[in-house]
């Protein structure tokens, strides 16, 4: 299991602000735009991005800490970088602060391209900047919708929905984990927007408990 605390150079009990500061410092040091053509720096940057993606999310961090202590398996799915709206917003904020690329197309190319990330100043970098707007739109296939749950829904532990709003009308059954709270997002893979020639996105249901619970 990767030691995300060691990668960021912070203690296990580090505060969210300490984790963010460590990430900013290392992102500046190893960012591909600051190290053009340096594959070692690029790999280090990817480790830092992955570590921050886990430790900046309270739920993922709890799962990771539990796995570290118990010896259980913990696997981080890189797709979560591209499908978690909250994580994506955090990257956008850091991109604005540091004035470096952390946009979705850039990170996608970083994790899934076999070549070297083009420098911002290179010709490829210029072409990539022109192209990334349309690429980002192409990946905007995920959708967030509210899910209102009654006490009876919670007792049953599941709810059945018909996705009229997505133009499909398909029926899906959503299982409700015990102790679910307002604000929780439930992910339905492959139930998001349909865009021609692209895989279907994911649907995120943001829980709203009726009755003030």
* Order of H and E elements: HHHHHHHHEHEEEE
Second rung of CATH, namely the architecture of the largest domain: Orthogonal Bundle
Instruction: Give the N-terminus to C-terminus distance in angstroms.
Output: 37 Å
CATH superfamily of the largest domain: DnaJ domain
CATH class of the largest domain equals Mainly Alpha
Largest sheet: 3 strands, mixed
Quaternary structure annotation: single chain
Question: Please, what is the average pLDDT?
Answer: 78
Structure notes:
With 213 residues, the protein is of the alpha+beta class. The chain has two domains: 4-138, Orthogonal Bundle (Helix Hairpins); 143-209, Sandwich (HSP40/DNAj peptide-binding domain), CATH 2.60.260. It is 47% helix and 13% strand. A three-stranded mixed sheet has the order 1-5-4. It has a two-stranded antiparallel sheet with strand order 2-3. α2 (16-30) runs antiparallel to α3. It is globular.
């Amino acid at each position: 299991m990767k030691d995300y605390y060691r990668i960021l150079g912070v203690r296990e009990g580090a505060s969210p602000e300490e984790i963010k500061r460590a990430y900013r410092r290392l992102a500046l040091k190893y960012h591909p735009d600051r190290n053009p053509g340096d594959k070692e720096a690029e790999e280090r940057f990817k480790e830092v991005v992955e570590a921050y993606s886990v430790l900046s999310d309270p739920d993922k961090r709890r799962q990771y800490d539990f796995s570290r202590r118990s010896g259980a398996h913990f696997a981080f799915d890189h797709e979560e970088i591209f499908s978690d709206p909250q994580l994506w917003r955090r990257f956008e904020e850091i991109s604005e602060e540091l004035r470096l690329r952390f946009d979705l197309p850039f990170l996608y190319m970083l994790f899934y391209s076999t070549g070297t990330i083009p420098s911002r100043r290179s010709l490829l970098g210029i072409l990539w900047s022109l192209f990334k707007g349309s690429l980002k739109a192409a990946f905007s296939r995920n959708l967030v919708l509210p899910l209102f749950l009654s006490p009876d829904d919670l007792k049953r532990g599941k709810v059945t929905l018909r996705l009229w709003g997505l133009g499909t009308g398909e029926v899906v059954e959503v299982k409700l984990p015990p102790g679910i709270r307002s604000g929780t997002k439930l992910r339905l893979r492959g139930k998001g927007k349909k865009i021609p020639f692209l895989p279907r996105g994911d649907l995120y249901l943001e829980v709203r408990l009726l009755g003030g619970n």
